[in-house]
TrEMBL record:
Residues 292-373 form the GHMP kinase C-terminal domain. Residues 22-68 form the Galactokinase N-terminal domain. Keywords: ATP-binding, Kinase, Nucleotide-binding, Transferase. Residues 108-193 form the GHMP kinase N-terminal domain. InterPro entries: Galactokinase, Galactokinase_CS, GalKase_N, GHMP_kinase_C_dom, GHMP_kinase_C_sf, GHMP_kinase_N_dom, GHMP_knse_ATP-bd_CS, Mevalonate/galactokinase. This is Galactokinase-like isoform X1. The lineage of its organism: Eukaryota, Metazoa, Ecdysozoa, Arthropoda, Hexapoda. It comes from Galleria mellonella (Greater wax moth). Belongs to the GHMP kinase family. GalK subfamily. Pfam families: GalKase_gal_bdg, GHMP_kinases_C, GHMP_kinases_N.
Length: 392
Protein backbone atom coordinates (compact mmCIF):
# COMPACT_ATOMS: atom_id res chain seq x y z
CA UNK A 1 0.00 0.00 0.00
CA UNK A 2 1.55 3.32 -1.01
CA UNK A 3 0.09 6.77 -0.20
CA UNK A 4 2.04 9.99 -0.81
CA UNK A 5 5.16 7.88 -1.36
CA UNK A 6 4.58 6.35 2.09
CA UNK A 7 4.58 2.55 2.26
CA UNK A 8 2.07 1.28 4.82
CA UNK A 9 2.11 -2.23 6.26
CA UNK A 10 -0.61 -4.50 4.87
CA UNK A 11 -1.29 -5.87 8.38
CA UNK A 12 -0.97 -9.37 9.82
CA UNK A 13 -4.65 -10.30 9.51
CA UNK A 14 -4.85 -9.36 5.83
CA UNK A 15 -1.58 -11.10 4.93
CA UNK A 16 -2.71 -14.22 6.80
CA UNK A 17 -5.99 -14.24 4.92
CA UNK A 18 -4.19 -13.84 1.57
CA UNK A 19 -1.88 -16.73 2.39
CA UNK A 20 -4.71 -19.01 3.57
CA UNK A 21 -6.87 -18.24 0.49
CA UNK A 22 -3.96 -19.02 -1.80
CA UNK A 23 -3.22 -22.23 0.09
CA UNK A 24 -6.81 -23.46 -0.21
CA UNK A 25 -6.92 -22.52 -3.91
CA UNK A 26 -3.61 -24.30 -4.63
CA UNK A 27 -3.62 -27.35 -2.39
CA UNK A 28 -7.36 -27.87 -1.82
CA UNK A 29 -7.13 -28.06 1.98
CA UNK A 30 -7.10 -25.63 4.91
CA UNK A 31 -3.63 -24.84 6.31
CA UNK A 32 -3.01 -25.93 9.91
CA UNK A 33 0.17 -24.03 10.86
CA UNK A 34 1.12 -20.37 10.41
CA UNK A 35 4.07 -18.18 11.32
CA UNK A 36 5.34 -14.69 10.64
CA UNK A 37 8.62 -12.82 10.90
CA UNK A 38 9.18 -9.07 10.41
CA UNK A 39 11.69 -6.96 8.49
CA UNK A 40 14.00 -4.75 10.50
CA UNK A 41 15.72 -1.40 10.50
CA UNK A 42 19.05 -0.80 12.20
CA UNK A 43 19.23 2.47 14.15
CA UNK A 44 23.00 2.37 14.59
CA UNK A 45 25.90 -0.10 14.86
CA UNK A 46 26.54 -0.71 11.15
CA UNK A 47 29.02 -3.32 9.91
CA UNK A 48 29.61 -4.13 13.55
CA UNK A 49 27.84 -7.43 14.20
CA UNK A 50 30.55 -9.53 12.52
CA UNK A 51 33.13 -7.67 14.67
CA UNK A 52 31.25 -8.78 17.82
CA UNK A 53 30.32 -5.22 18.86
CA UNK A 54 26.98 -3.58 19.69
CA UNK A 55 24.10 -3.01 17.27
CA UNK A 56 20.73 -1.33 17.84
CA UNK A 57 18.04 -2.59 15.43
CA UNK A 58 14.24 -2.65 15.70
CA UNK A 59 11.74 -4.99 14.03
CA UNK A 60 9.25 -3.36 11.62
CA UNK A 61 5.51 -3.89 11.08
CA UNK A 62 6.23 -5.40 7.63
CA UNK A 63 6.13 -9.18 7.68
CA UNK A 64 6.67 -12.41 5.83
CA UNK A 65 3.97 -14.98 6.56
CA UNK A 66 3.93 -18.72 5.89
CA UNK A 67 0.96 -21.03 6.22
CA UNK A 68 0.79 -24.73 5.50
CA UNK A 69 0.38 -28.29 6.65
CA UNK A 70 1.53 -31.88 6.14
CA UNK A 71 0.39 -33.49 2.89
CA UNK A 72 0.90 -37.21 3.75
CA UNK A 73 3.42 -37.63 0.92
CA UNK A 74 7.21 -37.32 0.93
CA UNK A 75 7.12 -34.19 -1.18
CA UNK A 76 7.72 -30.63 0.13
CA UNK A 77 6.01 -27.97 -1.97
CA UNK A 78 6.53 -24.28 -1.21
CA UNK A 79 4.70 -21.62 -3.19
CA UNK A 80 5.88 -18.02 -2.92
CA UNK A 81 3.55 -15.19 -3.86
CA UNK A 82 6.10 -12.54 -2.97
CA UNK A 83 6.34 -9.92 -5.70
CA UNK A 84 3.78 -10.12 -8.49
CA UNK A 85 4.67 -13.54 -9.83
CA UNK A 86 3.95 -16.90 -8.18
CA UNK A 87 6.90 -19.24 -7.96
CA UNK A 88 6.95 -22.79 -6.57
CA UNK A 89 9.68 -25.20 -5.52
CA UNK A 90 9.29 -28.90 -4.74
CA UNK A 91 11.73 -31.44 -3.36
CA UNK A 92 11.50 -34.79 -1.54
CA UNK A 93 11.48 -34.62 2.26
CA UNK A 94 13.92 -37.54 2.18
CA UNK A 95 16.49 -35.38 0.38
CA UNK A 96 16.56 -32.36 2.68
CA UNK A 97 20.16 -33.16 3.65
CA UNK A 98 21.20 -33.10 -0.02
CA UNK A 99 19.58 -29.75 -0.87
CA UNK A 100 21.84 -27.41 -2.85
CA UNK A 101 21.69 -23.68 -3.60
CA UNK A 102 20.26 -22.67 -6.98
CA UNK A 103 17.53 -20.72 -8.75
CA UNK A 104 15.05 -19.20 -8.08
CA UNK A 105 17.03 -17.05 -5.68
CA UNK A 106 14.24 -16.72 -3.06
CA UNK A 107 14.25 -20.50 -2.69
CA UNK A 108 17.77 -20.46 -1.22
CA UNK A 109 16.54 -18.82 1.98
CA UNK A 110 13.83 -21.46 2.26
CA UNK A 111 15.99 -24.48 1.39
CA UNK A 112 18.88 -23.27 3.56
CA UNK A 113 16.57 -22.92 6.54
CA UNK A 114 14.87 -26.29 6.03
CA UNK A 115 18.30 -27.93 5.65
CA UNK A 116 19.35 -26.41 8.99
CA UNK A 117 16.17 -27.26 10.91
CA UNK A 118 17.24 -29.66 13.67
CA UNK A 119 14.26 -32.04 13.40
CA UNK A 120 13.35 -34.27 10.43
CA UNK A 121 10.69 -32.72 8.22
CA UNK A 122 7.91 -34.77 6.59
CA UNK A 123 6.23 -33.82 3.31
CA UNK A 124 4.32 -30.55 3.55
CA UNK A 125 2.72 -27.83 1.45
CA UNK A 126 3.20 -24.14 2.24
CA UNK A 127 2.41 -20.68 0.89
CA UNK A 128 4.56 -17.61 1.58
CA UNK A 129 3.33 -14.01 1.33
CA UNK A 130 5.19 -10.87 2.38
CA UNK A 131 5.01 -7.09 2.46
CA UNK A 132 8.66 -6.62 3.50
CA UNK A 133 10.22 -4.40 0.81
CA UNK A 134 12.76 -6.52 -1.09
CA UNK A 135 16.23 -5.16 -1.86
CA UNK A 136 15.74 -2.19 0.47
CA UNK A 137 18.19 -3.30 3.15
CA UNK A 138 15.25 -4.03 5.49
CA UNK A 139 16.13 -7.71 5.92
CA UNK A 140 13.61 -9.41 3.72
CA UNK A 141 16.07 -12.34 3.69
CA UNK A 142 16.23 -12.77 7.46
CA UNK A 143 12.43 -12.35 7.61
CA UNK A 144 12.05 -15.22 5.15
CA UNK A 145 14.54 -17.50 6.94
CA UNK A 146 13.13 -16.88 10.40
CA UNK A 147 9.52 -17.16 9.16
CA UNK A 148 10.30 -20.54 7.58
CA UNK A 149 12.05 -21.73 10.74
CA UNK A 150 9.17 -20.60 12.97
CA UNK A 151 6.67 -22.24 10.61
CA UNK A 152 8.60 -25.53 10.89
CA UNK A 153 8.48 -25.20 14.69
CA UNK A 154 4.70 -24.78 14.50
CA UNK A 155 4.36 -27.69 12.06
CA UNK A 156 6.60 -30.18 13.86
CA UNK A 157 6.12 -29.07 17.48
CA UNK A 158 9.93 -28.94 17.82
CA UNK A 159 10.71 -25.74 19.77
CA UNK A 160 14.11 -24.12 20.00
CA UNK A 161 15.67 -21.27 21.97
CA UNK A 162 15.35 -18.09 19.83
CA UNK A 163 19.10 -17.34 19.97
CA UNK A 164 19.81 -20.80 18.55
CA UNK A 165 17.13 -20.17 15.96
CA UNK A 166 18.84 -16.92 14.91
CA UNK A 167 22.19 -18.73 14.67
CA UNK A 168 20.79 -21.55 12.52
CA UNK A 169 19.10 -19.04 10.19
CA UNK A 170 22.41 -17.14 9.93
CA UNK A 171 24.09 -20.44 9.02
CA UNK A 172 21.42 -20.99 6.36
CA UNK A 173 22.27 -17.59 4.86
CA UNK A 174 26.00 -18.40 4.85
CA UNK A 175 25.47 -21.77 3.19
CA UNK A 176 22.71 -21.17 0.60
CA UNK A 177 22.57 -17.55 -0.61
CA UNK A 178 26.26 -17.53 0.35
CA UNK A 179 26.27 -14.20 2.22
CA UNK A 180 28.72 -14.24 5.19
CA UNK A 181 26.39 -12.02 7.27
CA UNK A 182 26.64 -11.30 10.99
CA UNK A 183 23.93 -12.23 13.50
CA UNK A 184 22.07 -8.90 13.75
CA UNK A 185 19.29 -9.46 11.24
CA UNK A 186 18.25 -12.96 12.26
CA UNK A 187 18.50 -11.97 15.94
CA UNK A 188 16.21 -8.93 15.76
CA UNK A 189 13.80 -10.66 13.40
CA UNK A 190 13.53 -13.58 15.83
CA UNK A 191 13.43 -11.51 19.03
CA UNK A 192 12.25 -7.94 18.31
CA UNK A 193 9.95 -6.24 20.85
CA UNK A 194 7.03 -3.94 20.10
CA UNK A 195 7.92 -0.27 20.74
CA UNK A 196 11.54 -1.16 21.51
CA UNK A 197 14.90 -1.32 19.83
CA UNK A 198 17.30 -4.05 21.03
CA UNK A 199 20.85 -3.20 22.03
CA UNK A 200 22.44 -6.50 21.00
CA UNK A 201 25.87 -7.44 22.25
CA UNK A 202 27.04 -9.54 19.30
CA UNK A 203 29.74 -11.15 21.45
CA UNK A 204 27.67 -12.47 24.36
CA UNK A 205 24.47 -12.53 22.26
CA UNK A 206 22.60 -10.90 25.13
CA UNK A 207 20.26 -8.00 24.39
CA UNK A 208 18.85 -5.06 26.34
CA UNK A 209 15.47 -3.62 25.40
CA UNK A 210 15.59 0.12 24.76
CA UNK A 211 12.12 1.76 24.77
CA UNK A 212 11.72 3.79 21.59
CA UNK A 213 9.51 6.46 23.04
CA UNK A 214 10.59 9.52 21.10
CA UNK A 215 7.87 12.00 22.23
CA UNK A 216 7.40 14.56 19.48
CA UNK A 217 10.01 12.92 17.25
CA UNK A 218 9.88 9.88 14.96
CA UNK A 219 12.28 7.71 13.01
CA UNK A 220 11.53 8.06 9.32
CA UNK A 221 12.93 5.43 6.97
CA UNK A 222 13.58 6.67 3.42
CA UNK A 223 14.15 4.09 0.71
CA UNK A 224 16.52 5.38 -1.96
CA UNK A 225 15.12 2.62 -4.19
CA UNK A 226 18.57 1.92 -5.56
CA UNK A 227 20.40 -1.33 -5.21
CA UNK A 228 23.83 -1.46 -6.72
CA UNK A 229 24.94 -4.77 -8.07
CA UNK A 230 28.65 -5.45 -7.49
CA UNK A 231 27.83 -5.66 -3.80
CA UNK A 232 28.45 -9.40 -3.85
CA UNK A 233 32.15 -9.14 -3.17
CA UNK A 234 32.12 -5.90 -1.15
CA UNK A 235 30.48 -7.26 2.00
CA UNK A 236 32.81 -10.27 2.41
CA UNK A 237 35.73 -7.95 1.68
CA UNK A 238 34.78 -5.57 4.53
CA UNK A 239 34.41 -8.51 6.84
CA UNK A 240 37.83 -9.86 5.85
CA UNK A 241 39.47 -6.44 6.28
CA UNK A 242 38.06 -6.10 9.81
CA UNK A 243 39.31 -9.57 10.65
CA UNK A 244 42.73 -8.71 9.23
CA UNK A 245 42.93 -5.71 11.58
CA UNK A 246 41.94 -7.87 14.55
CA UNK A 247 44.49 -10.55 13.59
CA UNK A 248 47.26 -7.95 13.32
CA UNK A 249 46.40 -6.78 16.84
CA UNK A 250 46.32 -10.35 18.13
CA UNK A 251 42.61 -10.06 18.97
CA UNK A 252 39.77 -12.50 18.18
CA UNK A 253 37.69 -9.58 16.82
CA UNK A 254 37.73 -5.77 16.74
CA UNK A 255 35.37 -5.75 19.74
CA UNK A 256 38.39 -5.70 22.00
CA UNK A 257 40.22 -2.93 20.09
CA UNK A 258 40.72 0.67 21.29
CA UNK A 259 41.34 3.94 19.44
CA UNK A 260 45.05 3.77 20.40
CA UNK A 261 45.29 0.49 18.49
CA UNK A 262 44.99 2.44 15.24
CA UNK A 263 48.50 3.80 15.92
CA UNK A 264 49.70 0.27 16.47
CA UNK A 265 48.20 -0.79 13.12
CA UNK A 266 50.07 2.08 11.42
CA UNK A 267 53.28 1.08 13.15
CA UNK A 268 52.77 -2.47 11.85
CA UNK A 269 52.53 -1.04 8.30
CA UNK A 270 49.00 -2.28 8.01
CA UNK A 271 47.17 -1.60 4.73
CA UNK A 272 45.54 1.86 4.75
CA UNK A 273 42.07 0.54 3.89
CA UNK A 274 42.26 -1.97 6.72
CA UNK A 275 43.07 0.85 9.17
CA UNK A 276 40.13 2.90 7.86
CA UNK A 277 37.75 -0.05 8.39
CA UNK A 278 39.12 -0.60 11.89
CA UNK A 279 38.65 3.06 12.77
CA UNK A 280 35.01 2.91 11.67
CA UNK A 281 34.34 -0.21 13.72
CA UNK A 282 36.07 0.99 16.90
CA UNK A 283 34.29 4.37 16.84
CA UNK A 284 30.92 2.95 15.77
CA UNK A 285 30.90 0.57 18.73
CA UNK A 286 31.27 3.58 21.05
CA UNK A 287 28.64 5.52 19.12
CA UNK A 288 26.15 2.67 19.41
CA UNK A 289 26.47 2.42 23.20
CA UNK A 290 26.19 6.18 23.41
CA UNK A 291 23.02 6.27 21.28
CA UNK A 292 21.43 3.65 23.57
CA UNK A 293 22.48 5.72 26.62
CA UNK A 294 21.23 8.97 25.04
CA UNK A 295 17.87 7.36 24.21
CA UNK A 296 17.52 6.35 27.86
CA UNK A 297 18.28 9.95 28.91
CA UNK A 298 16.00 11.26 26.18
CA UNK A 299 18.88 13.29 24.72
CA UNK A 300 17.67 13.16 21.14
CA UNK A 301 19.99 15.95 19.97
CA UNK A 302 22.93 13.74 20.84
CA UNK A 303 21.36 10.72 19.12
CA UNK A 304 20.99 12.82 15.97
CA UNK A 305 24.62 13.98 16.04
CA UNK A 306 25.79 10.40 16.39
CA UNK A 307 23.58 9.36 13.43
CA UNK A 308 25.35 11.93 11.21
CA UNK A 309 28.79 10.85 12.45
CA UNK A 310 27.90 7.23 11.75
CA UNK A 311 26.88 8.08 8.20
CA UNK A 312 30.07 9.99 7.41
CA UNK A 313 32.12 7.16 8.85
CA UNK A 314 30.26 4.56 6.75
CA UNK A 315 30.70 6.74 3.69
CA UNK A 316 34.34 7.81 4.11
CA UNK A 317 36.01 5.11 6.23
CA UNK A 318 33.99 1.94 5.65
CA UNK A 319 33.11 3.00 2.08
CA UNK A 320 29.78 1.19 2.01
CA UNK A 321 27.54 4.14 1.11
CA UNK A 322 26.73 5.27 -2.45
CA UNK A 323 26.02 8.63 -4.14
CA UNK A 324 22.25 8.29 -3.66
CA UNK A 325 22.46 7.63 0.11
CA UNK A 326 24.98 10.46 0.54
CA UNK A 327 22.70 12.74 -1.45
CA UNK A 328 19.69 11.90 0.76
CA UNK A 329 21.64 12.64 3.95
CA UNK A 330 22.93 15.93 2.46
CA UNK A 331 19.39 17.01 1.55
CA UNK A 332 18.04 16.03 4.96
CA UNK A 333 20.69 17.73 7.07
CA UNK A 334 19.41 21.20 6.12
CA UNK A 335 15.71 20.50 6.73
CA UNK A 336 14.32 22.03 9.95
CA UNK A 337 13.49 19.50 12.66
CA UNK A 338 16.00 16.89 11.41
CA UNK A 339 18.27 15.87 14.30
CA UNK A 340 20.22 13.21 12.43
CA UNK A 341 20.27 10.90 9.42
CA UNK A 342 22.35 7.94 8.31
CA UNK A 343 22.36 5.04 5.88
CA UNK A 344 21.14 1.80 7.43
CA UNK A 345 21.86 -1.86 6.64
CA UNK A 346 24.62 -3.34 4.52
CA UNK A 347 24.86 -0.28 2.24
CA UNK A 348 25.46 0.29 -1.51
CA UNK A 349 21.79 1.31 -1.75
CA UNK A 350 18.76 0.73 0.44
CA UNK A 351 17.54 3.11 3.12
CA UNK A 352 18.36 6.13 5.27
CA UNK A 353 17.05 6.43 8.87
CA UNK A 354 16.25 9.93 10.04
CA UNK A 355 15.42 11.23 13.49
CA UNK A 356 12.99 14.07 12.83
CA UNK A 357 10.37 16.13 14.61
CA UNK A 358 6.89 14.73 13.91
CA UNK A 359 5.48 18.03 12.71
CA UNK A 360 8.32 18.35 10.17
CA UNK A 361 7.90 14.94 8.54
CA UNK A 362 5.78 16.24 5.65
CA UNK A 363 8.20 19.07 5.09
CA UNK A 364 11.11 16.64 5.08
CA UNK A 365 9.38 14.33 2.60
CA UNK A 366 8.67 17.30 0.34
CA UNK A 367 12.31 18.39 0.45
CA UNK A 368 13.42 14.87 -0.46
CA UNK A 369 10.88 14.39 -3.26
CA UNK A 370 11.81 17.78 -4.76
CA UNK A 371 15.58 17.48 -4.51
CA UNK A 372 16.51 13.78 -4.62
CA UNK A 373 17.28 12.57 -8.13
CA UNK A 374 15.75 9.12 -7.61
CA UNK A 375 12.26 7.90 -6.59
CA UNK A 376 12.12 7.85 -2.80
CA UNK A 377 9.54 6.02 -0.70
CA UNK A 378 9.04 6.44 3.04
CA UNK A 379 7.92 4.49 6.07
CA UNK A 380 7.68 5.35 9.75
CA UNK A 381 9.55 3.03 12.11
CA UNK A 382 7.03 1.65 14.60
CA UNK A 383 8.89 -1.21 16.26
CA UNK A 384 7.10 -4.53 16.11
CA UNK A 385 7.43 -7.91 17.81
CA UNK A 386 9.74 -10.53 16.33
CA UNK A 387 8.73 -13.86 14.81
CA UNK A 388 5.61 -15.57 16.11
CA UNK A 389 3.18 -18.34 15.28
CA UNK A 390 -0.51 -17.74 14.59
CA UNK A 391 -3.64 -19.74 15.45
CA UNK A 392 -5.75 -20.53 12.40
C1 LIG B 1 23.70 -6.87 6.48
C2 LIG B 1 24.14 -8.12 7.24
F1 LIG B 1 23.29 -9.15 6.97
C3 LIG B 1 24.18 -7.87 8.74
O1 LIG B 1 24.69 -8.99 9.38
C4 LIG B 1 25.01 -6.62 9.06
O2 LIG B 1 26.39 -6.88 8.96
C5 LIG B 1 24.59 -5.45 8.17
O3 LIG B 1 24.58 -5.78 6.81
C6 LIG B 1 25.50 -4.25 8.35
O4 LIG B 1 25.39 -3.73 9.62
O5 LIG B 1 22.38 -6.54 6.80
Amino acid sequence: ICMNNEILPVGTATLLRQACDKYVATFGREPVAAASAPGRVNLIGEHIDYCEGYVLPAALPFETIIVGGYNNTDSCNVLSVMGNKDSQISFPSTEVAELKPGLPSWSNYVKGTIANFPDPVKGFDAVIVSDVPVGAGLSSSAALEVAVFTFLEALTGYKIDPIQKAKLCQKAEHEFPGVPCGIMDQYIVAMGKKNHALLIDCQSLQATQIPLDLGDHVILVTNSNVKHELTGSEYPQRRAQCQEAADKLGLPSLRGAKIEDLEELKRLNCNKLVIMRAQHVIEEIYRTSEVAESLRRNDLDRVGKLFFQSHYSLSKLMEVSCPELDELVEIMKDVPGVLGARMTGGGFGGCVVTLVKKDQVDNLKRAVVENYKGNPTFLICQPNDGARTHKL
